[in-house]
Design a protein that fits this description.
The chain has about 110 residues and is an all-alpha fold. Helix content is about 80%, strand content about 0%. It is built from six helices and no strands.
Length: about 110
Amino acid sequence: MSNVLIRLASTIETRRTSDCKKSYVAKLLDHGAEKCAEKFGEEAVEAIIAAVKNDKKNLTEEAADVIFHLFVMLTSRGIKFEEILAELERREGISGIVEKENRTKREIL
């Protein structure tokens, strides 16, 4: 099932050069990274509202929108899905508390 995320990332990358009149992805990317980030934020807020309301169906739909728009936002800044996977693999098996402490220490240096 996780292959759908790889296919989604690939589709978004492919559509970045498509005609803006035919591709929602191309249209978003044409409006710039800031607009892509704004759209991601809107979708995240909608997911939060659905979660607060305990609306599972809407939350599921909004979560899919969040993931889609996250991928578009990452693409707008030249970040590949593989880079996100590599970062998740780096963190795998590390306590979230420890990982956060290590990140904070790196930021101080």
